[in-house]
Amino acid sequence: MIEFTLNGKTVRHEGDPEMPLLWYVRDDAGLHGSKFGCGISACGACTMHIDGQPIRSCSTPVSAAAGTKVTTIEGVTSKAAEAVRTAWRELDVVQCGYCQSGQMMSAIALLESNPKPTPEQVDSGMNGNICRCATYARIRKAVVRASELMGA
After folding, report:
1. Which of 13, 24, 54, 90 allows an S-S link to 109, with CB 3.0 to 4.6 Å?
2. Is the distance from CB of 4 to CB of 68 less than 8 angstroms?
3. Under a CB-based contact definition with an 8 Å cutoff, are residues 109 and 146 in contact?
4. What is the pLDDT of residues 77-90, one digit of tens each?
C-alpha cells in the first residue's frame, strides 16, 4: 500500500506501484486539472508538485509519492499561486487552456523558489512546458506580473 498526502488529504493506493501518478490523481482521486499531453515528460501538461517541487506526473510512478505531499492545480494555495492566478486572468493568458494547469504549476514553483526572477530565469523555469497555441509571450508576461503582485 502506498500512502501520501494529496492536496492536504491522506490517500492510499493499493494497486500497481508503477502506475503513473497522473492516472491515480485523475482516475482514482477524480482530480482532472492536470492533463495528459505526451506521456514522456516532454510537454509539462501534467505538472504537479511533490513536496513543493514540480514533477511530470505522467512518467512519475505513484510509488514515488509514498510519504510525500502531492499538490495539484486544484489544491495549490500560496501567495505565489494567488499571484499567478491573478496575473493569468489580468493578462488573458489562456487560449485553448489545455496546457495551462501545467504552465501555472511550473510558474508557481518558480516564484516560490525565486520571487523575483530575471527574464532568463523565467525562460529557464518555464522550459519544458509546451503550449500548442504559442501563448509564450503572454505566459512570460504573466510570470513577471505575478512576481510584481507578490511585491518582489
Report:
1. 54
2. yes
3. no
4. 999 999 999 999 99
**Cα torsion 119, 125, 126, 127: sign:** positive
Cβ-based neighbours of 34, under 8 Å, separated by 6 or more: 22, 25, 26, 45, 46, 47, 48, 57, 72, 73, 101, 102, 105
DSSP secondary structure, 11-62, as one string: EEE-S-TTSBHHHIIIIIS---SS--S-SSSSS-TTEEEETTEEEETTSSBG
Confidence (pTM): 0.96
In the block, residue with C-alpha cell 518558480: 110
Residue type, 136: Y
Sign of CA dihedral 130, 134, 137, 138: negative
Mention every residue, 6+ apart, whose C-beta is less than 8 A from residue 138. Answer: 91, 92, 93
Cell numbers of 124, please? 529557464
Mind listing the domains of the chain with CATH numbers? 2-71 (3.10.20.30), 79-149 (1.10.150.120)
Residues 110-129: tens digit of each pLDDT: 999 999 999 999 999 999 99
Beta bridge partners of 61: 20
